[in-house]
Protein backbone atom coordinates (compact mmCIF):
# COMPACT_ATOMS: atom_id res chain seq x y z
CA UNK A 1 0.00 0.00 0.00
CA UNK A 2 1.27 3.44 -0.92
CA UNK A 3 0.13 6.32 1.31
CA UNK A 4 0.54 9.82 -0.14
CA UNK A 5 -0.01 12.79 2.16
CA UNK A 6 -0.71 16.16 0.53
CA UNK A 7 -0.75 19.56 2.18
CA UNK A 8 -4.41 20.14 1.38
CA UNK A 9 -7.42 18.76 -0.49
CA UNK A 10 -6.48 20.49 -3.77
CA UNK A 11 -3.02 18.89 -3.78
CA UNK A 12 -4.55 15.54 -2.79
CA UNK A 13 -6.86 15.74 -5.83
CA UNK A 14 -3.84 16.25 -8.10
CA UNK A 15 -1.97 13.26 -6.64
CA UNK A 16 -5.09 11.12 -6.89
CA UNK A 17 -5.62 12.10 -10.55
CA UNK A 18 -2.04 11.08 -11.35
CA UNK A 19 -2.54 7.74 -9.58
CA UNK A 20 -5.74 7.14 -11.57
CA UNK A 21 -4.24 8.08 -14.93
CA UNK A 22 -1.09 6.02 -14.30
CA UNK A 23 -3.28 3.06 -13.35
CA UNK A 24 -5.37 3.40 -16.52
CA UNK A 25 -2.20 3.66 -18.62
CA UNK A 26 -1.19 0.18 -17.47
CA UNK A 27 -3.84 -1.38 -19.72
CA UNK A 28 -2.15 -2.59 -22.88
CA UNK A 29 -5.20 -3.34 -25.07
CA UNK A 30 -8.89 -2.52 -25.28
CA UNK A 31 -10.80 0.26 -23.60
CA UNK A 32 -10.20 1.40 -20.06
CA UNK A 33 -12.56 0.42 -17.26
CA UNK A 34 -12.87 2.89 -14.39
CA UNK A 35 -14.62 2.25 -11.08
CA UNK A 36 -16.21 5.46 -9.84
CA UNK A 37 -17.51 6.80 -6.55
CA UNK A 38 -20.03 9.48 -5.66
CA UNK A 39 -19.81 11.80 -2.66
CA UNK A 40 -17.95 15.04 -2.02
CA UNK A 41 -14.43 13.63 -1.87
CA UNK A 42 -13.82 12.68 -5.53
CA UNK A 43 -15.11 15.98 -6.95
CA UNK A 44 -11.65 17.58 -6.86
CA UNK A 45 -10.20 14.47 -8.48
CA UNK A 46 -12.84 14.58 -11.23
CA UNK A 47 -11.98 18.25 -11.83
CA UNK A 48 -8.31 17.26 -12.21
CA UNK A 49 -9.25 14.52 -14.68
CA UNK A 50 -11.23 17.13 -16.63
CA UNK A 51 -8.09 19.31 -16.77
CA UNK A 52 -6.13 16.35 -18.12
CA UNK A 53 -8.78 15.93 -20.83
CA UNK A 54 -8.59 19.64 -21.68
CA UNK A 55 -4.78 19.38 -21.93
CA UNK A 56 -5.00 16.38 -24.24
CA UNK A 57 -3.48 14.05 -21.62
CA UNK A 58 -6.58 11.92 -21.13
CA UNK A 59 -9.63 10.87 -23.11
CA UNK A 60 -12.58 9.11 -21.52
CA UNK A 61 -14.76 8.90 -24.63
CA UNK A 62 -14.44 5.12 -24.84
CA UNK A 63 -13.92 4.45 -21.13
CA UNK A 64 -16.40 2.11 -19.50
CA UNK A 65 -17.35 3.07 -15.93
CA UNK A 66 -18.90 1.09 -13.09
CA UNK A 67 -20.31 2.85 -10.04
CA UNK A 68 -19.84 1.50 -6.55
CA UNK A 69 -23.38 1.80 -5.34
CA UNK A 70 -26.95 3.00 -5.76
CA UNK A 71 -29.91 3.54 -3.47
CA UNK A 72 -32.62 0.90 -3.34
CA UNK A 73 -35.99 2.28 -4.41
CA UNK A 74 -34.72 5.10 -6.63
CA UNK A 75 -34.93 4.81 -10.40
CA UNK A 76 -31.83 5.79 -12.35
CA UNK A 77 -33.68 8.88 -13.54
CA UNK A 78 -34.37 10.11 -9.97
CA UNK A 79 -32.47 13.34 -9.29
CA UNK A 80 -31.00 11.97 -6.03
CA UNK A 81 -29.99 8.64 -7.53
CA UNK A 82 -26.28 8.03 -7.71
CA UNK A 83 -26.70 7.48 -11.45
CA UNK A 84 -27.92 11.06 -11.97
CA UNK A 85 -25.30 12.36 -9.54
CA UNK A 86 -22.59 10.71 -11.62
CA UNK A 87 -24.08 11.93 -14.89
CA UNK A 88 -23.82 15.51 -13.59
CA UNK A 89 -20.66 15.30 -11.49
CA UNK A 90 -18.60 12.91 -13.61
CA UNK A 91 -19.85 12.18 -17.16
CA UNK A 92 -20.46 15.80 -18.11
CA UNK A 93 -17.18 16.88 -16.47
CA UNK A 94 -14.74 14.38 -17.97
CA UNK A 95 -16.55 13.54 -21.22
CA UNK A 96 -17.52 10.00 -20.27
CA UNK A 97 -20.48 8.84 -22.35
CA UNK A 98 -23.63 8.25 -20.32
CA UNK A 99 -24.24 4.96 -22.11
CA UNK A 100 -20.81 3.83 -20.89
CA UNK A 101 -21.74 4.51 -17.26
CA UNK A 102 -22.97 1.40 -15.47
CA UNK A 103 -24.73 1.75 -12.14
CA UNK A 104 -26.33 -0.89 -9.93
CA UNK A 105 -30.09 -1.14 -10.37
CA UNK A 106 -31.76 -0.83 -6.99
CA UNK A 107 -35.21 -0.39 -8.45
CA UNK A 108 -37.57 -3.32 -8.81
CA UNK A 109 -40.86 -4.91 -7.84
CA UNK A 110 -39.34 -7.27 -5.33
CA UNK A 111 -36.25 -7.95 -3.29
CA UNK A 112 -35.65 -11.06 -5.42
CA UNK A 113 -35.57 -8.95 -8.56
CA UNK A 114 -33.04 -6.53 -7.05
CA UNK A 115 -30.91 -9.48 -5.89
CA UNK A 116 -30.87 -10.83 -9.45
CA UNK A 117 -29.98 -7.39 -10.84
CA UNK A 118 -27.15 -7.16 -8.28
CA UNK A 119 -25.73 -10.53 -9.33
CA UNK A 120 -25.82 -9.47 -13.01
CA UNK A 121 -24.04 -6.24 -12.15
CA UNK A 122 -21.33 -8.12 -10.29
CA UNK A 123 -20.87 -10.49 -13.24
CA UNK A 124 -20.60 -7.53 -15.65
CA UNK A 125 -17.84 -6.02 -13.48
CA UNK A 126 -15.96 -9.31 -13.44
CA UNK A 127 -16.30 -9.66 -17.21
CA UNK A 128 -15.07 -6.11 -17.86
CA UNK A 129 -12.20 -6.12 -15.31
CA UNK A 130 -11.81 -2.78 -13.55
CA UNK A 131 -8.44 -1.08 -14.14
CA UNK A 132 -8.73 1.51 -11.37
CA UNK A 133 -11.36 1.77 -8.65
CA UNK A 134 -11.79 5.21 -7.07
CA UNK A 135 -12.89 5.09 -3.43
CA UNK A 136 -13.96 7.52 -0.74
CA UNK A 137 -14.36 6.43 2.87
CA UNK A 138 -17.23 6.97 5.29
CA UNK A 139 -16.57 8.34 8.77
CA UNK A 140 -17.60 4.88 10.02
CA UNK A 141 -15.03 3.15 7.78
CA UNK A 142 -17.36 2.11 4.97
CA UNK A 143 -16.28 1.90 1.34
CA UNK A 144 -19.02 1.75 -1.24
CA UNK A 145 -21.96 1.16 1.06
CA UNK A 146 -20.23 -1.74 2.79
CA UNK A 147 -21.11 -0.74 6.31
CA UNK A 148 -19.31 -2.10 9.39
CA UNK A 149 -20.04 -5.81 9.65
CA UNK A 150 -19.70 -6.41 5.89
CA UNK A 151 -18.15 -9.70 4.84
CA UNK A 152 -14.62 -9.20 3.58
CA UNK A 153 -15.39 -11.37 0.54
CA UNK A 154 -18.83 -9.93 -0.20
CA UNK A 155 -20.07 -9.39 -3.74
CA UNK A 156 -22.60 -6.85 -5.08
CA UNK A 157 -25.72 -7.09 -2.92
CA UNK A 158 -28.38 -5.23 -0.97
CA UNK A 159 -27.08 -3.58 2.24
CA UNK A 160 -28.94 -1.73 4.96
CA UNK A 161 -27.54 1.77 5.44
CA UNK A 162 -26.33 2.61 8.93
CA UNK A 163 -27.96 5.43 10.89
CA UNK A 164 -24.69 7.38 10.61
CA UNK A 165 -24.57 7.05 6.81
CA UNK A 166 -28.23 8.08 6.42
CA UNK A 167 -27.55 11.08 8.64
CA UNK A 168 -24.41 12.01 6.64
CA UNK A 169 -26.35 11.78 3.34
CA UNK A 170 -29.49 13.59 4.56
CA UNK A 171 -27.98 16.82 3.18
CA UNK A 172 -28.79 15.63 -0.35
CA UNK A 173 -32.46 14.90 0.48
CA UNK A 174 -35.37 16.74 2.12
CA UNK A 175 -34.32 15.51 5.56
CA UNK A 176 -33.37 12.14 6.99
CA UNK A 177 -36.80 10.54 6.49
CA UNK A 178 -36.42 10.81 2.71
CA UNK A 179 -33.04 9.02 2.69
CA UNK A 180 -33.48 5.43 1.47
CA UNK A 181 -32.83 2.74 4.08
CA UNK A 182 -30.98 0.32 1.77
CA UNK A 183 -28.50 0.38 -1.08
CA UNK A 184 -27.09 -1.97 -3.67
CA UNK A 185 -23.33 -1.88 -3.31
CA UNK A 186 -20.37 -3.60 -4.84
CA UNK A 187 -19.04 -6.01 -2.23
CA UNK A 188 -15.63 -5.80 -0.63
CA UNK A 189 -14.55 -8.81 -2.69
CA UNK A 190 -15.79 -7.10 -5.86
CA UNK A 191 -13.85 -3.93 -5.03
CA UNK A 192 -10.69 -5.92 -4.29
CA UNK A 193 -10.83 -7.43 -7.80
CA UNK A 194 -9.92 -4.06 -9.35
CA UNK A 195 -6.32 -3.95 -10.55
CA UNK A 196 -5.62 -0.70 -8.68
CA UNK A 197 -7.45 1.04 -5.84
CA UNK A 198 -7.19 4.79 -5.34
CA UNK A 199 -8.70 5.73 -1.97
CA UNK A 200 -9.01 9.45 -1.27
CA UNK A 201 -9.82 11.02 2.11
CA UNK A 202 -9.70 14.65 3.12
CA UNK A 203 -10.67 16.50 6.28
CA UNK A 204 -10.33 15.91 10.01
CA UNK A 205 -13.68 14.05 10.15
CA UNK A 206 -12.03 11.18 8.23
CA UNK A 207 -8.89 10.94 10.41
CA UNK A 208 -10.19 8.26 12.77
CA UNK A 209 -11.58 6.06 9.99
CA UNK A 210 -8.29 6.36 8.07
CA UNK A 211 -6.15 5.46 11.09
CA UNK A 212 -8.34 2.42 11.80
CA UNK A 213 -8.43 1.34 8.15
CA UNK A 214 -4.70 1.66 7.51
CA UNK A 215 -3.18 0.81 10.88
CA UNK A 216 -5.86 -1.17 12.67
CA UNK A 217 -6.45 -4.91 12.26
CA UNK A 218 -8.04 -6.24 9.09
CA UNK A 219 -11.63 -6.41 10.25
CA UNK A 220 -15.21 -6.27 9.01
CA UNK A 221 -15.71 -3.70 11.79
CA UNK A 222 -13.79 -1.31 9.52
CA UNK A 223 -14.60 -2.41 5.94
CA UNK A 224 -12.01 -0.02 4.46
CA UNK A 225 -9.29 -2.07 6.18
CA UNK A 226 -9.50 -4.44 3.17
CA UNK A 227 -7.27 -2.01 1.28
CA UNK A 228 -4.47 -3.61 3.33
CA UNK A 229 -5.06 -6.79 1.32
CA UNK A 230 -4.75 -5.18 -2.09
CA UNK A 231 -1.44 -5.47 -3.98
CA UNK A 232 -1.78 -2.04 -5.65
CA UNK A 233 -3.64 0.31 -3.31
CA UNK A 234 -2.81 4.02 -3.41
CA UNK A 235 -4.21 6.02 -0.48
CA UNK A 236 -4.21 9.78 -0.95
CA UNK A 237 -4.82 11.96 2.10
CA UNK A 238 -4.61 15.58 3.09
CA UNK A 239 -2.83 16.40 6.33
CA UNK A 240 -6.07 16.61 8.28
CA UNK A 241 -7.20 13.12 7.25
CA UNK A 242 -3.70 11.76 7.95
CA UNK A 243 -3.56 13.27 11.44
CA UNK A 244 -4.41 10.02 13.25
CA UNK A 245 -1.65 7.96 11.58
CA UNK A 246 1.29 6.96 13.75
C1 LIG B 1 -20.01 6.78 -2.69
C2 LIG B 1 -19.57 5.82 -1.72
C3 LIG B 1 -19.25 6.18 -0.30
C4 LIG B 1 -18.52 7.50 -0.16
C5 LIG B 1 -18.29 7.82 1.32
C6 LIG B 1 -17.61 9.16 1.51
O1 LIG B 1 -20.27 6.14 -3.93
O2 LIG B 1 -19.46 4.71 -2.06
O3 LIG B 1 -18.49 5.14 0.27
O4 LIG B 1 -17.29 7.43 -0.83
O5 LIG B 1 -19.52 7.83 1.99
O6 LIG B 1 -18.47 10.17 1.10
P1 LIG B 1 -17.95 11.67 1.00
O7 LIG B 1 -16.91 11.71 -0.06
O8 LIG B 1 -19.16 12.48 0.60
O9 LIG B 1 -17.40 12.03 2.33
Automatic annotation (TrEMBL):
The UniProt record lists the keyword Hydrolase:
yes
> Could you name the domain of life of the organism this protein comes from?
Bacteria
Which intervals hold domain Glucosamine/galactosamine-6-phosphate isomerase?
9-229
* Keywords per UniProt: Carbohydrate metabolism, Hydrolase
Annotated protein name in UniProt: Glucosamine-6-phosphate deaminase
Q: What is the species listed in this Swiss-Prot or TrEMBL entry?
A: Paeniglutamicibacter antarcticus
User: Lineage from the top down?
Assistant: Bacteria, Bacillati, Actinomycetota, Actinomycetes, Micrococcales
Amino acid sequence: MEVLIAANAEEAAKLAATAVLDGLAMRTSGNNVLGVATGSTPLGLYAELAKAVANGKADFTNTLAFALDEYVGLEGTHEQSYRQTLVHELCKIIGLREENLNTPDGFGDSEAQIRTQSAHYDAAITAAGVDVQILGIGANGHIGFNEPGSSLRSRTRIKRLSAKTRQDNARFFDGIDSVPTHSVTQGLGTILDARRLVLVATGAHKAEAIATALEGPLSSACPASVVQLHPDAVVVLDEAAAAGLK
